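Quick start: load a record and inspect it. Here is EamA domain-containing protein:
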Amino acid sequence: MAFHASPYLLLTSTSLIWSLNWVVGRAMVGHVTPLTLTFIRWAVAVSVMLPFAWPSIRTSWPAIRRNWKLIVWLGFWGTGFHNAFAYVGLQYTTATNGVILNSAIPICIIVLGWLVYRDTITRLQTLGVVVSLTGIFAILTAGDLSVLASLTLNKGDLIVLAGMVFWAAYTIYLRNKPADLPPLALLACCACVGVVLLIPFAAFEMLFLGGGVELTPATIGAFLYLGIFPSFVGYVFWNRAVAEVGSNVAGMFIHLMPAFGVVLAWLFLGERLYAYHFAGVALILAGITLTTRGRRPATVTAK
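Running the structure step on this input writes:
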């Protein structure tokens, strides 16, 4: 599956797709338990992507066998427990706290990139992070940053934050993808790993924690959306863009999610837009612009 779109367009589209993922995920609370939801999401994703990925899996099987440790590693971080931790954490924390913690992903990527690969950060990238975070907090606090002083961390916050660290780890380790392993084959194999890892956890939730799922037209539609768009299309776009612009710049586009969340709430929930929304979006876009202009060429290791 080949794409020729700008990596920045791919990253923007991914942020939109993943923003709606949070809306759909919250709507499923009370209809399906979190670990079961994560398993169903990735089971649907595997079912959809395998017909597309199978030819490249067959031709690149020697590369898959050589790099099975990397595939398991990426499957663990990115397609196994990142979503599970996010869905579980949202059972105990507020949506506001969850979005703020989700916006910590770019910082996690930068920190892990420095710790693992000794990545260097330019001054423009640092300024871009600060400006973008200011825009996010402007939206989340309705323009009153003093509200941040009243925010407290609970176990849900810590669980969500752990999920964000998992995603950051997945993103920075994508640079280790070997050149002879097609992106779609890698994604499909990682998704299969994620599904296998989630089976015992979803089963435990169903058997011992009162887990369950309601099968209605609405929930089935939600499962299809989560499996096709955030899990398949979004990951293909993300992986392609990370390979072109690097993990630090790609991570900054996560900051678009609160901005998209405002628009989605206006479209689907009828919520009003205020001046601080527009100011926050402007700051987010300014921060992303600074980061993309201040980036250095990404280093991709091929095995």
